[in-house]
Amino acid sequence: MAKPELLSGTLDLLVLQVLNGGPLHGFAIAERIHALSKDVLIVEEGSLYPSLYRMEEKGWIAPEWGQSDKGRRAKFYSLTKEGKKQLMAERQTWDRIALAIGDVLKNA
Amino acid sequence: MNLVRKVRFWVRELFLRSRFNTDMDAEIRHHLEQRFEKNVAAGMSPEEARYSALRAFGGIDQIKEQLRESRSLLNLDQIAKDFHFSIRSLCRSPGFTATILVTLVLGIGIASAIFSMSGDAVLLPLPYPDAGHLYVIGVNSTLSARNLSRPARYFPLYQDKTNLFAEFAAVGQEFCNVVVDGDPRATSVLRASTDFFKTLGIRPVLGRPFLPAEHFSGADNVVIISNLFWQQRFHGRPDVLGQKIRIDRNVCTVVGVLAVLQRFPEAFGGELYRPMVPLNGASEPVFGGWLSIIARLRPGVTPADVCAALAHISLPSMPPWAYTFLTAQKPMLVRVSDLDRPDVEWVAIGAAAVLYLIACTNTMNLVLVRNLRRRRELGIRVAIGGSRLQVLRLLLIEALVLGATSCATVLVIAHELYPLILSKLKDNADAGYASYLVGHYLGGILVLALVATASIAVVSSVSFLRTQIEPSLKDGGNAAGESRKLAGTRNSLVALQAALAVVLMVGTGLMIRTFENLHHVDLGYNPEGKVKVTVKFPNGDGPQHEARLQLFDLLSQKLRYLPGVKGVSPGQDTLLLGFYGGAARLQMVDGTYVPVSGSYVANDFQQVAGLTMKSGTWFSGARGQPDVVVNEAIVKKRFYGYDPVGQSIKLEVSGDVEFHIVGVVADIRETVRSPAGLRIYFPSWMYPPNVDTLLLSLEKNPPAGFDDLVRRTIYSVDPDLITSSVESIDNQVDASLAHERYAFRILRTLTAIGFGLALIGVFSVMAYSVDCRMREFGVRVAVGATPRSLVRLVLKRGLSYTSMGVVIGISAGLGLTRFMRGMLYETKPYDASVLAAVTVALLGASAAACLLPALKASRVSVMRLLRSE
Predict the structure, then answer these.
(1) What span, in angstroms and rounded, lies between the C-alpha atoms of B588 and B595?
(2) Which of B9, B12, B21, B30 is the best mutation test for A, with the most CBs of A within 10 A?
(3) What is the pTM of this model?
(4) CB within 8 Å of A82: residues ≥ 6 apart
(5) How confident is the model at residue A49 (pLDDT cuts 50, 70, 90)?
(6) Which residues of chain A are within 8 Å of residue B1 when distances are taken between CB atoms?
(7) CA–CA separation, B556 vs B570, rounded Å?
(8) Do B688 and B546 meet the contact criterion of CB atoms below 8 Å apart?
(9) Residue A27 is nearest to which of B34, B62, B63, comparing CB atoms?
(10) Would you call B30 an interface residue with chain A, using a CB distance cutoff of 8 Å?
(11) Rounded to whole angstroms, how far apart are CA atoms B192 and B716?
(12) B302: burial class by Cβ within 10 Å (0-12, 13-18, 19+)?
């Protein structure tokens, strides 16, 4: 079966959720989403970095350079206070949509 | 985002852009290294791992570009790169860039100069307080243009009408010998009444206005000078107040200096002002002095009310002939805003606007053509990852570079050249002050440059957005990919330029016609070599009777000895008076009276003036015989064309006195434009007080310094005499056509430039069109077309655009040149010969402009075309 495409608008939600667990660099964020989705979801680098830069501009995440676990210089992103609020709002939206889709599938 | 974080973000964006790029590269490199290591750990060889990592990432450059673009701020360093690229790209096309810059500089520069110069006269409100109620008081003569000066006697009579006028003032002009630092020059001096400056809301910028006490004889040796006088005669010295200048025989002190280019209504502006002293009332000679009178009406008072009241003024006692003359004239009021000649300024503004439009249209066309030629280059840019938005930004920046460069060039030129250009155009040293008016034309230059830049930007972006990129990459990148709409736009722009050029050419053609007609006007004498010298007497009119005639005879004898002088004749000012005023009333056959003008002249006047006798002889001047000479106009009007020599006429003021006509002389014109009025020539002994002018006839126009010679000669006869003016009649003729000449100069220059620009437009479009169609021409040649037929094809296409332009331009021109009616002379706005000449000139020049591209088309080589496929 082909890997499903990420729904439009959900990448931001996933990145925010992953960062809620602590600062991570870009590669780690992609790997974490892949791992947490049990290898279902693949984040394209071409989508990831534009999403990260966009959320940084909006103030939801804040970058900081640091040392990776392999001792390399890497740019880590962490969730800001506004990011946490945005995560909660997007989760509520997602839950509502998921419920609505579920209702349609159950009753159609 | 909290405030601190926001500030840090913006600081980083604005000032640390290079850091952004470095960090972005480092971040992406880190990601790739991580991916590489993971692939190696999964068992790939290093080469496979690297390749897989890169493939998984995707187009790195595109992503980097996307990340740079994603920043919401202006992306300053990318913009800086675009500027750098645009400048390089423009430098690589020096011909195109130079043509655009020259076109824009001409269009913006000339338009801004003329708008600032003429705009003041027509667009700015008059600087006088409550200008809508400000009027000049004059009279309507029955046969000619209005007369806006009044005998000084009227001044106190009008001034009494305080129920009509809220404010009331007057000036009287005299030409005096003004000496500053030992340098004497004839200068216009205006005597200003008490409230003159207050009425116009004018205050000196240095010093003070006149005090009420200075408006009395003996206390009036003070003077307010114009700013131009201060600059020219005092060289702008800061301690000008208190300086002494000699005006005729009076030593006057400078008490005030007026503002730069201080505006006055026509006839109220001068170089020097002195206080007017009270007149002598009834003892004032009837026509002793003439004043220009200005008044502000009280609220609720209309011009009609004023005219009615002034028509019933009781005049003081005066000779009957004077009474008749004055009561025959009807008072009239002219609003101050109607005094200037706005039609001339509107023509100048209109012509400048048309030239500016031609320049903009030409530029738009050139940019359009260039962008079409660059379709391939722009297509490649999009293909390798640039977005259409990025390319659009590049084109807009190019437009900005062109606009900014031309604006900067115009500003530099304006600072250096505007004063020179404007003073040459206006024939007026005052215009040299334009350098002080930086604020005026600076604003105009910026606005015009902005509009031109916007027009380039619009045409550039629209042409790019409407162009299909892919076809231009596939083939040679020439004709393919250009939409029909764009081609139509191009052709329309050429037609528009041609139309605008035609409008200018029609205007110029009509003015050329007008000047031709004016130069062929027969004044009735040859003005070349004729000089009028007006003499006045201090404090009155000098000797009245025989003594006056003897004095003027003596002056004539002395002046006859000046170098180049062939003859001198004393009398009343007669040649090129500048107005017609029917002073007396001639009795007609049916007993009615018509206004007629009289000139009291010497018996040698006809010979010195070079008038042509039509029949009979000039009067001999023998005393006691009331012999007169009449002009042809009187022969037609009074004698129905029959020779009146030997007959008599009567004038109303003279009662039963009969004047014997001894000769008929050809008409002479009082002004260049209007036909001669009825005129009778009387021997000067009949009324010596009217003798105040010496007519000199020279071999040719007077040389420089002649003015001084005349003044010194007159001074040597009587040091009390004042030489008011020494005027060459030829110069007077020129001066009377100053407005027309000004309009003509502007039209001629703008037409030449507009014409040239329009031809550049035609040439560039045809050159491009031929380039695009070379393949088609090759095919035509291959199937049998001759070179001549190709030339005809190209010429036909080119001439079709300009023909359309000619038709539109002539229609528009006919509509617009109606506004020039006031300036034309014996020329209709739809003069067929002018329209025909314009059509032939533009079509001929367009054909010449199309010739080079046409010849290129005719030389198409089929073999070369096939090889290049």
Answers:
(1) 10
(2) B30
(3) 0.69
(4) A58, A59, A60, B1, B2
(5) very high
(6) 58-59, 80, 82
(7) 7
(8) yes
(9) B34
(10) yes
(11) 31
(12) exposed
Give B481's pLDDT tier (boundaries 50, 70, 90). Answer: very low
Contact of B66 with chain A, judged by CB distance below 8 Å, is answered with yes
Structure tokens at B128: 């006088």
Q: Kind of pairing, strands B150-151 and B272-275?
A: unpaired
Element (H, E) at B377: helix B375-383
Q: Which candidate in B7, B16, B34, B71 is best for mutational testing of the A interface (most A CBs within 10 A)?
A: B34
Indicate the Cα dihedral angle B103, B108, B114, B115, nearest 10°: 150
Q: Report helix angle A10-19 to A45-58, nearest 10.
A: 70
How far apart, in whole angstroms, are the C-alpha atoms of residue B30 and residue B469?
36
**pLDDT tens sequence across B379-436:** 777 666 666 777 888 889 999 999 999 999 998 888 777 767 666 666 555 555 554 4
Shortest distance, CA B31 to any CA of chain A (angstroms)? 5
Question: Could you tell me the two tokens for A18?
Answer: 């992953």
**Can you give the pLDDT at residue B781?**
85
Are A49 and B63 a contacting pair at CB < 8 A?
yes
Model confidence pLDDT, tens digit, residues B779-826:
888 888 888 888 888 888 888 888 988 999 998 888 887 777 777 888
**pLDDT for res B539:** 59
Indicate if the pLDDT at residue B136 is higher than 70.
yes
C-alpha distances out from residue A95 to A7, B291, B616, B791, Å: 14, 95, 121, 75
| pLDDT confidence of residue B773 | 80
User: Mapping DSSP to helix (H, G, I), strand (E, B) and coil, where does residue B247 land?
Assistant: strand
Binned at pLDDT 50, 70 and 90, residue B629 comes out as: very high
Q: Token pair for residue B340?
A: 């200037």
Tell me the residue type at B495. Answer: A
- Contact call for residues A52 and B23 (beta carbons, < 8 A): no
Q: Where is mean pLDDT largest: A80-84, B316-320, B708-712? A: A80-84
Angle at B486 between CA B482 and CA B488, to 5 degrees: 120
B613 Cβ contact list (under 8 Å, min separation 6): B606, B663, B664, B665, B666
Task: Tell me whether residues A75 and B70 touch, CB distance under 8 A.
Answer: no
Q: What is the pLDDT of residue B143?
A: 41
- Of A29, A54, A56, the closest CA to residue A44 belongs to A29
Measured between alpha carbons, how far is B164 from B167 in angstroms, rounded to an integer? 9
B218-248 pLDDT, tens digit each: 889 999 999 989 988 998 899 999 999 998 8
Task: Tell me the chain A residues in contact with residue B57 when contact means C-beta distances shorter than 8 Å.
Answer: 45-46
C-alpha closest to that of B613 among B595, B598, B635, B589 = B635
H helices, E strands: number in chain A: 4, 3
Query: What pLDDT does B320 receive?
Result: 64
B733-768 pLDDT tens trace: 887 787 788 888 888 888 898 888 888 888 887 887
- Residue identified by tokens 């000679």 is B285
**Residue B587 CA: distances (Å) to CA of B321, B630, B796:** 14, 14, 70
Q: Which tokens go with B98?
A: 């130079």
CA B416 to chain centre: 20
Which whole-number Å values give the CA distances from B349 to B345, B481, B821, in the listed order?
Answer: 6, 41, 16
What CA–CA distance (Å, rounded) separates B628 from B635? 13
CA distances, B698 to each of B564, B572, B610, B611 (Å): 5, 19, 11, 15
Q: Which of B63, B66, B69 to mutate to test the interface with A (most CBs of A within 10 A)?
A: B63
Length of chain A: 108
| Three-class HEC string of B191-216 | EECCCHHHHHCCCCCEECCCCHHHCC
